[in-house]
Amino acid sequence: MTSSSILATSQVAKRFGSVVALRSVDLTVGRGEVHALLGANGAGKSTLVKILSGVLQADEGQITLHGRNLRLRNPAEAQEAGLATVFQDPALIPDLTVSENFRLTDVSEQEVVEWLERMQMSGVDFDQQIRDLPLPTLRLIDLARALTREPAILMLDEITAALPADQAEQVFGVMDEWRDKGRSVLFITHRLGEVMRMCDRATVLRDGRNVATFVPREMGEAGLVEAMLGEAAQGPTTVQTAVAKGPVALETRQLRSGDRLKGVSLELHAGEVLGIAALEGQGQDRLFALLAGDRPPDSGEILVAGDPLLAQSPYDAVRRGMVLIPSDRLQALLPQRSIRENLATPLYRRVGQWWGLAADEDDRVRSAIDRLSIDTRAGRQAGRLSGGNQQKVVVGRWLAAGFRVLLCFDPTRGIDVRTKQQIYELLRELAAGGAAVLLYTSELAEIPLVCDRVLVLYDGQVVGRQAAHEATEESLLTAAHGLSSEDVA
Amino acid sequence: MTDALLGPEPTGRPTWGMWVSDHPQLVLGSVLVLLVVVTGIIEPRYLTFSGLRNTVLLAAPLGIMAGAQTILMLTGGIDLSVGMIATAAAYVAANQSPSGAAIAITAGLLVGVAAGTVNGIGVGLFRVNPLIMTLAMSAILLGLFTALSFTVLQGSTTVGRLISTLGGGSFLGNRIPYNALVWGGVSLLVIYGLRRTGLGRLLYAVGDNPTAVRLAGVRLWQVHLAAYAIAGLLAALAGILLAGRTGAVDLQLGVNFVLPSVAAAVIGGTSIFGGIGTYSGTIFGALILGVLATMMTFLDAGQAIQQIVYGSILLGLAWLYARVTSSS
Amino acid sequence: MTVATVESGWARSWRKNVRRHGWTLGVWLLLVGLMVAYAALLPRFGAFQITSIAKNSLPLVYLAIAQAVIVIAGGIDLAAGAILVLANAVAARLMEGQTFPVTLAIAVLVIVMATVLNGIVGWIITVSRVPDIVVTLATLFIFSGVALLVLPSPGGGTSEGFRALFTGSTSGTGSNFVPPLLSMAVPLALVAWWMRRTETGLSLYATGSNRVAAYLSGVSTGRAKVVAYAIGGAFGALGGLAALAITGSGESRLATASGFTLRAVAAIVLGGVALTGGIGSVVGAAAAGIVLFTLSPFLSALGVDPNTAQMIQGVLIVVVMMIAGIVELRRQRAL
Predict the structure, then answer these.
(1) Interface membership of A130 toward B (CB under 8 Å)
(2) A332–B211: do the CB atoms touch at under 8 Å?
(3) Residue B161 Cα, gap to closest chain C Cα (Å)
(4) Within-domain flag for A234
(5) Whole domain around residue A124: which residue ranges?
(6) C243 touches C87 (CB < 8 A)
(7) Which residues have C-beta within 8 Å of that of residue B323, sequence separation ≥ 6?
(8) Of A330, B100, C65, C218, which is the most exposed, with the fewest CB atoms less than 10 Å away?
(9) Which of C20, C216, C227 would you mutate first to test chain A, the one with the most A CBs within 10 A?
(10) What CATH number does residue A81 fall under?
(11) Is A314 within 8 Å of chain B by CB?
C-alpha cells in the first residue's frame, strides 16, 4: 500500500490542556482510493480532519504528502498543498453572494458551474446570498468549489448528513469520478451503508488511535461496528424499567410551525420517557423550540398538565415546569461562572427573587451536585470542566430548581460512555420519581435502551409510533427515512 | 468568547495565570501602591493626609460612575451616556437646591433613573445596540439640557450647601472627604449586590451567556432594564457629587468622565464582553487613574501627556489580562 | 433543489438587489428627500448651498467611510475621531505658510502616516486578542494626546490651493461645488469598488460576516483586520485634512475626537452597516453621514432651534435602530 500512498500521517498527536484528543494516529491514503475514516463520537476523527485541513496544528507527529513533509499552519496552506476539505458546515460566507464567495477564494466561476452541472445542480442563482440558500445546496457548492482546486486529496466531513438521497447519489458519483481520475478521497461518515458501498479501505479510530485498517467489504457491517466500539468500550446498557404511567403531563395537538412542523400531536405521561427518533432536520429542533417556549407555534395547542401553554418566551414555559436541555451544552452553560452560580440561575427567575439569595440555595446546589456526582475540583469556572461534567451542570440546574417535563434535545452528544450511562440512568430515575421526559437523541441505537415509547418524526410529521421493547436501531432507522428508506438503511 | 474552531476548552490544573486572573486585586493593589510611592518620591508632600485626600476627592465621582459602567459591562453592555446623565442630574439638583437638599438630591437621582430606564428599554426590549442607544441618549440629553439651560433652568447653576459639602468637603480635621464616605457606602452596596443577591447573579450570567439565562426562564429585558436604571442612578449620584465639588454646574460637567469610567472598569479587570469582573477591581482602577492625575499635576505635565499615559496604561493592562487569561 | 423561476432575469436581479441593498437605497432616497425639502424651505437654493453642504459634510463622510470599512471587517474604532484630529493637527502645524505643492506633499505624508499607524492598531488587536473597543479606547486617548502635543492650542494653517482642493475656493467658502463633490465621490467610489470587487476587499466582508468560515475558506482574517484598520486610518486622515481645508486652521481637543467618533458610529448604523460586521456598505454609510450632517441646517431652516435639533437627531437614531431591531427579530422568526 505504502508504495502508492499519497498522504500519510505518522504518530500524529494532539491535546487540549489535559484532554488528549489524539494519542497517535498513523493513516495512509493511497492513490486513487476512497478511504473511510471511522470512529465513534470522541474517537478523534474531527480533530484529525482539522489537523489535515490546517485548522489545528498537531503537537507531535508528521504529515507527508507525495512523500514530502508538510507543515500546515492554516487552511490556506492546506489548500495550496492539495488538501481540500468540505466541512459539515460549509465554509461559505453568509453575507456574501455565491459568486462573491468564489471571487473571495479565487476560484473560477465557470469551473464551479461545470462541476455543479455534473451534480445535476444547474439552477443555482449565483447572485443569491449564501444565507438564503438551503444547507444541501451549500454543501454541493462547497464541494464543487473544492473540486475546482484539483486537490490530491478530497476530504469530505459528514457531507451526506442531512443530504436528501438523490443529492447524496450525486456526491457518490463525484467520488467515483475522482477515484477514476487517480485522485483520492478521505470520507468521514457515520453511515456504514455508505462505507460498504463506496469505500476501498477504511481506517478506524478509537480513543485517539488508529486501531484497524481494512477493506470494508471484507469485514461486513458487524465487523465495522465491532472495530469502532472495541470489546472493552461497550455502549450504554439498558436502563429501562417498567414504571406505572401517571397522568398526562404534556400533550400537543396538531402543532404547526412554518414548513418545519406539519401537525404534530403527542402525549407524554408523568413517569414516562418518550423518545423522538428522527434523522437530522426533520423538525425535531423546531418541536423542542416550541415546547420550550422559544417561539410560539403557528397553530395547534400545547397542554401542560391539562392547561394550555401560551408561551411568549422560555419564562412562561419554565414557570409551568417545561425545561430544556439543549443539544449544544454551551448554549446553556455560563462558562466563566462557578458551578454554584450555574446551578442556581433558575432560582432567580422572578423579580421578587432578586433582592437576596435563596435561603435554600446551598442545599439545592449541594443535593444537585451529589445526585449527579459532579466533579467540583475546577468549580470556579464551569468552562474548565470536562464535557461530561458540563452537561451534568446543565442537567443539575433543573434538579436544583424543580420541573415537571424535561425536554432533552440530544443531551449526550459528544459525551463519554460512562457519563452517558449516568445521564440515562438519571433520566430513568427522574421518570420513576414522577417526572415526564421527552428525549431526542441522534444516536438511534440508544433510544430503545432508555425510552418507554418512541415517536418517529419525518418531514415535520409523526410517521411512526413504537413501543421501545419492540424497537431496534434498524426498525427506527427504516421508519426515520420515511417512505424511501429501504435503499438507504 | 470561545472559538468553536479551536476545539474543547482547556481543562485541568490551575496555572499561575489562572490564579492571577482569579485575584486581580493583588496585581492592581501593587500597581496602586507603586504609583503612590512614585508620586510620593516626586512630591514628598503627597504622602500626607491632605495629599492623599485630594486623590480620593478626584477619584470618588469617577469611581461611582465607573460603578455604573462596571454593572453594565458585566451584562455585556456599556453606557456612553453616564457623562450626560451626570450633567443632567447635577442641573436638576442645582435647580431644586432652593427647595432643600433632600428634594434636590432626590430629583437629581430620579432624572438618572429615568434616563437609565429609557436606555434599558431600548437595549432590553428593542435590542438596540448599547453603544448606539446610550450614544443617542447622550445626544438627546445634551440637546434637552442645553435648551433648558436657556429657559427653565436658567440662572440656577449653583448647588446648595449640603451638596457642596458632600461633594467637596472633608471631616476629621480636613482629612477625609465626605464624597469618599458616599463612595464607600455605594461600594458596599454594589459589592454586596453583585455577590449576594439574585440580581447580582443574573447580571454576571447575562453577560456570560444570555441564551443560557433565557433558557433558564429569566426574562432578559428585566435584567437589562434593572441594570441600566441602576447605572443611571449611580451616574446621577456621581454628577451631584461633581457639582458639589465644583460648586456650580455647566454642560461640560460630566463629559470628560465617560471614557475614564470605561477605562477604570477595564483596568480593574472587568471584561468588555461581560461575565467577568468585580467592583473592587474597578475601585482600584478609579484610584489608579486618580493617583495618575495627581502625579501628572505634580510633574506639571499637560493634558496631552496625561491622555497618552492613560491610554498606555489602559492598553498595557488590557494586554496583560488578555495574556493571563489565554495562557490558562 | 433550486429551480429557475419563470420571471425575467432583469426583474429578478432587480428584486434581489433591492432586497440586499434596500437599506442603502433607502438612505439615499432619504438624502434626496432631505435635499429637496431643504431646497424648498430656503428662499434661495443654489450652487452656494450645495457647495456648503458638500464641503462641510466631508469630514464626517470620510470618517463614516473609515468606520464602515472597519466595522464591516468585524471591528470598531473608537479612535477614528482621534486619527482625524491627529492628522488635522499635524497637517495644520506643518502646512502653515507653505506653498501648494509642499502642502500637497505633506497631505500625502499625513495620509501614509495615519495608514501605517492605524494598521499597527489593527495588528495589535489581532496579536493581543484584546477586544477592538478596548484597544481603540486606549488609542483614542493616546492619539488625541499626541495631537494636543503637536498643536497645544487651535492654530496652524495651510495653503490656499489646498483649501480649494476640498472646498472649491481658496477662502474656504464659495459656490464651486465640483471639487468638494469630486473629493467625496472619487475616494468613495474607489473604496466601494475595491470592497465588493477584489479578493482582499471581499475578505473584509468575510472576516466580519463569519470569521470561522472565512478562516476555513483560506482567508487570512488577521491580515483582513490590519488592512481594514489601515484604510480606516487613511480615511480618518482625509477627514482631518478636509477639516483643515474648511476652517483654515487646526484644533486638537479630546472632546472633538470623541464627538467625531460617536457621530461616525451613528452615521454607519443609520447607513445600514451592522455593528456585528459583514453587513452594509460604505456607500450607505457615506449617504448617512451627509444626512446626519444636513439634518441640523435643515431643522434650523424649519425654525427648530439647534438644541431641539440635537434631540431630534438622537431620537431619530434610536427609532431607526428600534425598527431595525424589530425587523431583524421578525426575520429570525420567519426562518
Answers:
(1) no
(2) yes
(3) 31
(4) no
(5) 2-229
(6) no
(7) B17, C128
(8) B100
(9) C216
(10) 3.40.50.300
(11) yes
Distances (CA, A) of A66 to A9, A146, C31, C68: 12, 19, 60, 45
Task: Give the distance from residue C216's alpha carbon to the nearest chain A alpha carbon, in angstroms.
Answer: 6
Q: Across the interface, which of A17, A354, A358 has its CB nearest the CB of B11? A: A17
Helix (H, G, I), strand (E, B) or coil at A70: strand
Residue of A nearest to C203 (CA): A104
Position C31, amino acid: L
Q: In total, how many domains does chain A have?
A: 2
Cβ–Cβ below 8 Å for C206 and A96: yes
- Tell me, yes or no, if the pTM score tops 0.95: no
Chain C residue with CA closest to B147: the answer is C307
C275 touches chain A (CB under 8 A): no
Tell me which residue of B148, B62, B159, B142 sits closest to B101, measured CA to CA.
B159
Q: Is residue B2 part of a domain?
A: no
Q: Tell me if C220 and A76 make a contact (CB, 8 A cut-off).
A: yes
Same domain, A125 and A174: yes
Asked if A209 and A257 sit in the same domain, the reply is no
Phi, psi of C237 (to 5 degrees): -65, -40
Find the domain containing B122 and state its range. Answer: 25-327
Question: Which residue from B129, B303, B323 is facing C321, i.e. has the nearest CB?
Answer: B129
Please report the DSSP string for A194-205 in residue order. HHHHH-SEEEEE
Of residues B83, B73, B106, B131, the one with CA closest to residue B235:
B83
Does any domain span residue B8? no
The CATH code of the domain that includes B135 is: 1.10.3470
Beta pairing partners, A277: A456
**Is B144's Cβ below 8 Å from some Cβ in C?**
yes
Would you call B143 and C307 a contact, using CB atoms and an 8 Å cutoff? yes
Question: φ, ψ for residue A428 (rounded to 5)?
Answer: -65, -40
Render each residue's pLDDT in chain A as its tens digit; 489 residues.
Answer: 444 789 999 999 998 766 778 999 999 999 999 999 988 766 788 889 999 999 999 999 999 999 899 889 999 999 999 999 998 889 999 999 999 999 999 899 999 999 999 888 888 889 889 988 888 899 999 999 999 999 999 999 888 876 777 888 889 999 999 999 999 999 988 777 888 889 999 999 988 899 889 898 888 877 777 777 665 445 566 666 656 678 999 999 999 998 889 999 999 999 999 999 887 778 898 999 999 998 899 999 999 999 999 988 999 999 999 999 998 888 899 999 999 999 999 999 999 999 999 999 999 999 999 988 888 877 788 887 877 788 889 999 999 999 999 999 988 776 766 777 888 888 988 898 889 999 998 777 778 888 989 999 988 899 888 888 777 777 777 777 664 444 433
How far apart are the CA of B176 and the nearest CA of chain C, in angstroms?
A: 31
Please give the residue of chain C at the shortest CA–CA distance from B256: C255
Residue numbers of A between 354 and 393 with CB closer than 8 Å to B: 354-358, 378, 380, 383-387
Decide: A319 and A402 in contact? Cβ < 8 Å.
no
In A82-215, alpha helices (H) = 98-104, 109-118, 135-148, 165-180, 192-198
Q: How far apart (Å, rounded) are the C-alpha atoms in residues C160 and C244?
A: 11
Within 10 angstroms of residue C18's Cβ, the number of other Cβ atoms is 11
- A37 lies in the same domain as A98: yes
Instruction: Flag whether residue A170 sits within 8 Å of chain B, measured between CB atoms.
Output: no
Residues of chain C contacting residue B136, judged by C-beta atoms under 8 Å apart: 266, 314-315, 317-318, 321
List Cα–Cα distances, B67 to A42, B73, B262, in angstroms.
44, 10, 9
**How many Cβ atoms sit within 10 Å of the Cβ of residue B125?**
16
Please check whether residue C326 lies inside any domain of the structure.
Answer: no
ipTM: 0.86
Sign of CA dihedral B3, B4, B7, B12: positive
Report chain B residues whose CB lies below 8 A from the CB of A351: 222, 226
Chain C: give the shortest CA distance to residue A270, in Å. 31
Q: Is residue A150 domain-resident?
A: yes
